[in-house]
Every structure is written in C-alpha cells, then in structure tokens.
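queue> pop job 88
queue> type: inverse folding (structure -> sequence)
queue> payload:
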C-alpha cells in the first residue's frame, strides 16, 4: 500500500487552495492512503473530504522547530511526503522579510500576479498541467445541505425577502476589512428594499457592524463558525467579501460573489470562478502580492491600509449587475 502525508498548517484560504490535492495525488501518483495534518482553521476546510484517510489537527502551541524536525524526516516515514508550508507565501504572496517584498509593483505583478493559487499548489506537488484549473471543495453530509437550504428559504420568508445577501465583514488581516460595509449595506437596502443582508465575521470587526431592520448580524456568533457560514453561503443569492477564506469557498460553490481585491490579482483568486464579480482597490499599489505583518511602506488612510477604501460607485455598479443578472 502506498501511503502519503500532506502538511499544510495555515489559514482558511491557504488550505482551501490545496483542498483539491488529495484527490489528484491519489489519482496521479497511485497513492492508496493519505494523512493530512493541518491547523484548526484547516480542519474546517478539510473535514469530511473523502480523499483524506486520516485528518490530524496540529495544535497552534507546537513549536516551529519541533514541526520542522518532524517535516525533515517525513520522507523517511511515508512513501510520499508533501510539505506545503508557505507554498503560496514564499512564491506568490510575499512576507516583509523577503527582498522581493520591497521590489516595485511592476516586478511583483509580472512575477506573482499571473497564476491562480489553485494552480500554484498543483504545480507545487509536481502534478502535470492537465490538472491546472482544478479547484477545491468543502464536503458536508446531505442532511446539512438540506438544513442550509431550509434556513435560506425560511429566513427569506420571514423577512419577505427576494434577495438574500451574505456579507463578510473581515478576514484575518487589516487589509481584509470591509471598511465601508455600513454605507454599502444602506445603499443596497435603499435601492433593493426587499433584500435581506446577513453579516458575518469575528468579534474583532464588531466596530464595523451596521444596524438596520433588514440586516441580521451574526458577527461574533459562536453558532456561526466558519464551517457553518461556508455552507450557508452556497444557498445565499449573493455574497460580498474582501480577500478572505470565505470568498474562496463562495467562489468554489459558484455562488454569485463580489470580491473586493486588495493584495491579490484576478488571476490569483478569481480566474476559475463562475458568477464572479470583482472590484479592485483604487490605491496605486494594488495588487501588491504582499502578505504584510507590519504594513511597512503601505500608504495609509485613517490609520488603516489605504487599500481597504474602495470606490463605492464601482461596488454598487457590480451589485446592480449581479441583481439584474439573477432577475
């Protein structure tokens, strides 16, 4: 029996972009059994994946040196070992301790902006080009799909809504905040009064939470964890989100989705998605293809990265386009 181990300890979007690999590795390399170790967030992406035979959560408390020591002997313990650590970050989304972080925008866009992140991962494990364009998916029991469908039907009926919109307010970094969420939600509800907006996000974005009788906020709601929201977005009519892990999931369902692009390019995040809409931050340095920790050199506005401020008319233009295309 041929056994493989995959390691990807990262955030939601990073793990989503490698969720397709277990199936392809089994198919191409003739692997019979796959162990996959990941983070707590990665567990939400990979749980139930039928091509993973053993899914392991790696505690965040584990020391990096210990993990690296384990990775170094992985090839001795398995027929195949795929260490996907920083596989996107070191090649296409740069940390500020990388000299390429400090190169000009033209250089980064030419070198890091032309490949989709799913393809980056496919090439990383040396799969042939015939697999390019393959996307990842989340897996749920059919009963949970029925629950999510029923939830969407019931809440639309309760509010007499004809357009159910899920809005993700923030991701894990400052440049993934939907800073203008209140203004955009109010404009949507004024123009499409029978819309219903569901807000989601963690406790850290509660300061952005708008109030309206047709806005239902699930921000910081423990019952609305990532995996729950990821399934519900499949049964919403429209999703709006910054560059978060959730937007990657929404695109994977082909739910009509508007992504607010800051650091990544259309090729990186959207290329293979259907029913996709996008708006680019108007700041001169977007896309930057950076994964900043301290935002060195980034222009700022109101003490935030300037890229989180979008042209609201452009956003509303895409909202109108999406509404018209569904009616």
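queue> result:
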């Amino acid at each position: 029996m041929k056994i493989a181990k995959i390691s990807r300890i990262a955030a939601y979007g990073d793990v989503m972009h490698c969720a397709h690999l277990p199936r392809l590795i089994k198919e191409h390399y003739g692997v019979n059994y796959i162990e996959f170790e990941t983070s707590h967030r990665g567990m939400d992406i990979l749980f139930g994946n039928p091509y993973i035979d053993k899914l392991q959560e790696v505690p965040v408390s584990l020391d990096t040196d210990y993990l690296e020591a384990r990775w170094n002997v992985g090839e001795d313990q398995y027929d195949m070992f795929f260490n996907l650590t920083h596989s996107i970050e070191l090649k296409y989304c740069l940390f500020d301790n990388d000299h390429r972080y400090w190169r000009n925008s033209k250089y980064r866009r030419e070198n890091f902006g032309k490949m989709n992140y799913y393809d980056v991962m496919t090439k990383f494990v040396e799969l042939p080009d015939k697999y390019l364009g393959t996307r990842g998916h989340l897996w749920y029991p059919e009963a949970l799909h029925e629950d999510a469908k029923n939830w969407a039907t019931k809440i639309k009926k309760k509010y007499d809504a004809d357009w159910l919109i899920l809005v993700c307010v923030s991701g894990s970094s400052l440049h993934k905040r939907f800073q203008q969420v209140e203004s955009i939600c109010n404009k949507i509800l004024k123009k499409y009064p029978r819309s219903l907006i569901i807000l989601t996000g963690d406790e850290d974005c509660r300061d952005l939470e708008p109030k309206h009788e047709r806005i239902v906020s699930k921000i910081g709601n423990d019952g609305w964890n990532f995996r729950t929201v990821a399934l519900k977005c499949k049964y919403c009519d429209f999703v709006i989100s910054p560059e978060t892990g959730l937007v990657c999931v929404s695109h994977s369902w082909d739910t009509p989705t508007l992504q607010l692009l800051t650091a990544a390019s259309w090729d990186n995040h959207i290329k293979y998605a259907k029913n996709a809409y996008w708006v680019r931050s108007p700041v001169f340095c977007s896309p930057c293809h950076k994964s900043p920790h301290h935002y060195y050199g980034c222009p700022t506005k109101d003490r935030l990265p300037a890229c989180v401020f979008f042209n609201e008319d452009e956003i509303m233009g895409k909202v109108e386009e999406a509404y018209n295309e569904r009616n």
